Amino acid sequence: MVTNESIEEYIKKMHDKDLFMNLDDEQKDSSIFSALELLKDHYRPSKITDRAVALQVLYMLEGEDEEYAKLKRHGVKNYAVKGVSVTFDGGEIASSVIAILGEPRTKKATVGQLI
User: Fold this and answer.
1) What is the pLDDT of residues 95-107, one digit of tens each?
2) Where does the source fall among the domains of life (predicted)?
3) What are the CB-based long-range contacts (under 8 Å, 24+) for 26-35?
């Protein structure tokens, strides 16, 4: 079962854990909650693993740290400042998570969901 504690233990074993480890306990819980809820929006809860959530947490923290995450959340595809241009490719979910869990499901209803 995926829990905050199991996710935090997984992150502690990862190489690039510093952004997460520098947070206080409330911020850690909030980061895990946000990542888990985002993944639940796109995947069946039974598919979601500690590893997927840990990777998503770090992806989200890295994006916030680099200040690009806010732009991506607002749908910005291209961003330019003082001759430097950035093009965002991808979405809110880390490519490493997509590699593990597969393509996110769409919001379109299937026959089973219509009943």
Assistant:
1) 889 888 988 887 6
2) Bacteria
3) 28/4, 29/4, 31/57, 31/60, 31/61, 32/4, 32/7, 32/8, 32/57, 33/4, 34/60, 35/60
